[in-house]
Amino acid sequence: MDSLDPAAYLPHRPPFLFLDRLLTVESGVSATARLQVTGCPEGYPPILLVESVAQLGGIAAAREGDAGGILAAIDRAEFHGIIANGESLTVTARIAKSFGPLHLVEGEVTGDGGTVATITLTLKVGPLP
């Protein structure tokens, strides 16, 4: 891993970059990142956790030279509890299966009180048509 900054691996930029710092990346296998919740006095919108897992899954699934990618499907998303402003979250993404450019990603988001989301999604990583 050359950089801890997710922006080094993704085209996303604030306010649409939903990861703050990479902790681990094992290319083709898994990745872990941190997200500090700010600017959400009413609580963090849980659907944005899906995008966090998708962004991290794209980093985990990408191989040297890959550029681009899309969230192809949200297979399952379960949310547990409210995420408070100021909470620090750990996002994990594991590549469960790969078939060419398609990757099944299993994600989990944990916060101060335990698991706040479990998410399974499909990504297409590589050049877009």
Automatic annotation (TrEMBL):
The keyword Secreted does not apply. The keyword Cytoplasm does not apply. GO terms for molecular function: lyase activity. Keywords: Lyase. PANTHER family: 3-HYDROXYACYL-[ACYL-CARRIER-PROTEIN] DEHYDRATASE. This is Hydroxymyristoyl-ACP dehydratase. The lineage of its organism: Bacteria, Pseudomonadati, Thermodesulfobacteriota, Desulfuromonadia, Geobacterales.
